[in-house]
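Hey team,

Filing this mostly as a record. A colleague (T.K.) asked me to run one chain through the structure pipeline before their review meeting, and I want the input and output archived in the tracker in case anyone asks later how it was produced. No errors, nothing strange. Just documentation.

Input sequence:
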Amino acid sequence: MGKELGRILREYDVCEEALEWAEPYETLAEAWNACERGDWMIWLAAKAELCTHEELVTVTCECAQLALPYAAATVAPVIAAAAANAIAAACIGVAARQVLDAIDPAADPADADADAAAYDIVYADVLRQCAEIVRKRILSPILMAEALSR
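Output structure:
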């Protein structure tokens, strides 16, 4: 990991998983462009105040909407609660997991392994799509590096 990238990530006290993931990257721009965890990106943008509250809410709402196609109509209240939680927390990972946890609550336990594998695939896909939204809506890596180095 590049010295400046390591300094920035430690300064903002990112989780150990994110530090390990960022190890091969030299710069913040490289890591930002490669990241497939929209929840991490939103978290860093919020923690480092890289965008306005309105921008953060907009991005978080767009990301929360990604989970809607995977939810059964019977979990509408859970979806609404998860979206509200995402807005309040400015962290889509929490909302996406709550929405996906609510999918088909009466499923046969015998299908648990298949469901878990499908869940992981859907969850990763939602986070990957969220990362693309974040990259389009929140500061470019160059501007972000300048903001973080202040």
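Quick notes for T.K.: The CA atoms of residues 62 and 133 lie 8 Å apart. Confidence is low (pLDDT under 50) at residues 90-96.
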